[in-house]
Write a structure and sequence with these properties.
Layout (H helix, E strand, L loop, with lengths): L1 H31 L6 E2 L9 H12 L3 H12 L2 E6 L2 E6 L2 H10 L4 E2 L1 H12 L8 H11 L5 H4 L9 H10 L12 H23 L9 H29 L3 H10 L3 H6 L5 H15 L2 H13 L3 H13 L7 H5 L2 H13 L5 E6 L3 E7 L5 E5 L4 E5 H4 L3 H4 L10 H4 L20 H18 L3 E3 L7 E3 L3 E3 L5 E3 L1
Parallel strand pairs: 1-2, 3-8
Antiparallel strand pairs: 2-3, 4-5, 5-8, 6-7, 9-12, 10-11
């Protein structure tokens, strides 16, 4: 027994020595660069930060995570440091720091060390899981298909958002609303949700991801692969047919195409690349526009004057074709969408990891104004949800739904970023806003009154995206 106790004491001593050495290294490097550390999170476990990991997991499970983030920022300020499962982290909602991470010092930060090891069995290398040249290639494959004229098929939205999304990605809808959804498609959607949830858990576990049971998860990954590979094969057949056409006919076909998978197949014949990219594209599209639309009607049902004014503006455009130009001619519509995205961003948070030793321009020291030294391997977290509610930016009414604020207030750089920004900013921004605008207007054309059928507050269910855990229960007449 004494032997084991000696071993335990020895291991603890080595761990403490290592931590003290790392702290000395950090303090020395920080001082040499004129930096100061940000305020620390008050850990109960200052060595591994298991307390923070557990409280975060509990908050996510109970749908109180966004409130918990708000509490942390209100208590510790706009920038603070912490640990989670032994990993050093810095959290900030300072616009100056966000610009440094996502734009100015873009190459100092990445996602691959965190995302790829956790998600590789599900969706491999692609635009969500990689950095550097591989990410640049992936981004290039996607970009042509998000041309305004190709990315948005407004008439198809009458069939439902999920069907529109799978039509754009795979070339075929899953018929989710018609009742004709195939067992194969139904199994795919179920497996995809499970595979994506497991990926998120593996990312959260970090170096302890081996603790996550993978047997059923890998079966879900295999199911998603088989479904996607069927459409990849069709896209490669399309590629072979297209390449056999003269260049003029090929250009004509390209102009009519509205299928992301085919668009990528025009640029590569690697089936694994196509499979990985299309699965990651579906991840990025998962419930995003649908969540935005639900948030819009959740807010409108509780703010009748805004509904009535918007209804008047929609009626005023008459029976004209609902194209992008017509949607842009409704002034209040964009204000309502912006305000919904401000209060309830579909992507409420964003993470990065330092790929090299770097700095953040502000947030350190007792006053929170000194630069911060960030060693390689440090995790970076930010919350668009909390950034969009900062009274210092949005005023004392920051938590209130006031679409009219967009008539007189224009946020500064990195103060309003519902679609991210910088080189990795969302390619589907225009598509999402146009589709949400169309659905909102079509409903306003059909109905003149709205009533809320749920008096509960908006409750954030956070995974990759955030949606109201209570749904959107309204009555339209």
């Amino acid at each position: 027994m004494m032997h084991y106790l000696q071993i335990a004491v020895g291991v603890a001593s080595l761990a403490l020595t290592y931590l003290l050495f790392r702290r000395w290294q950090y303090d020395s490097a920080s001082k040499s660069k004129g930096c100061s550390p940000p305020k620390p999170y008050p850990h109960k476990d200052p060595i591994l930060g298991i307390d923070l990991f557990l409280s975060t997991g509990k908050a996510i499970q109970e749908h109180t995570y966004l409130q918990e983030l708000t509490r942390r920022y209100n208590t510790l300020g706009n920038t603070f440091r912490s640990k989670s499962l032994g990993a050093e982290s810095v959290a900030t909602i300072e616009p100056e720091n966000l610009q440094a991470v996502f734009s100015t010092n873009f190459n100092d930060w990445g996602v691959e060390p965190v995302r790829l090891p956790a998600q590789a069995p599900f969706c491999g290398k692609g635009f969500i899981t990689t950095d550097g040249p591989v990410w640049e290639h992936s981004r290039g494959l996607l970009r042509p298909s998000f041309n305004k004229s190709k990315a948005v098929d407004l008439a198809a939205l009458e069939n439902g958002y999920l069907d529109t999304s799978t039509q754009f990605l795979f070339g075929e809808p899953v018929n989710s609303l018609s009742g004709n959804i195939s067992k194969e498609a139904e199994a795919f959607l179920k497996a995809f949700d499970h595979a994506m949830l497991g990926s998120g858990i593996r990312i959260a576990l970090g170096p302890f991801k081996v603790l996550f049971p993978t047997s059923q998860w890998r079966k879900s990954c295999e199911t998603t692969h088989k479904f996607a590979e069927k459409y990849v094969a069709k896209a490669l057949e399309y590629r072979a047919s297209l390449m056999s056409e003269p260049s003029k006919e090929r250009d004509a076909v390209n102009a009519k195409r509205m299928n992301l998978l085919q668009g990528m197949a025009e640029q590569t014949d690697d089936p694994f690349t196509l499979r990985n990219e299309i699965l990651q594209a579906l991840m990025a599209a998962q419930e995003t526009t649908a969540s935005l639309i639900c948030n819009v009607f959740f807010l409108l049902s509780r703010h009748k004057p805004v509904w009535r004014k918007l209804h008047q503006e929609v009626v005023a455009i008459g029976d004209c074709e609902l194209n992008a130009e017509a949607l842009q001619s409704i002034p209040l519509l964009r204000n309502v969408l912006n305000e919904a995205l401000r209060l309830y961003p579909v992507f409420p948070q964003m993470n990065r990891i330092a790929l090299k030793d770097t700095t953040l321009p502000t947030g350190g020291g007792p006053t929170g104004t000194k630069p911060i030294f960030v060693p390689k391997g440090t995790n970076f977290d930010t919350s668009w949800y909390n950034l969009h509610r900062l009274p210092s930016i949005w005023g004392v009414d920051a938590d209130e739904f006031k679409p009219e604020r967009w008539d007189y207030f224009k946020p500064g750089p990195w103060q309003f970023v519902p679609f991210g920004g910088g080189p990795r900013g969302c390619l589907g921004r225009t598509k999402a806003l146009t589709e949400a605008s169309y659905v909102t207007v079509r409903i306003l054309q059909e109905f003149s009154n709205i009533e809320s059928r749920d008096d509960r507050d908006w409750t954030g269910q956070v995974q990759l995206t955030a949606k109201n855990a209570n749904g959107c229960k309204i009555a339209l007449t």
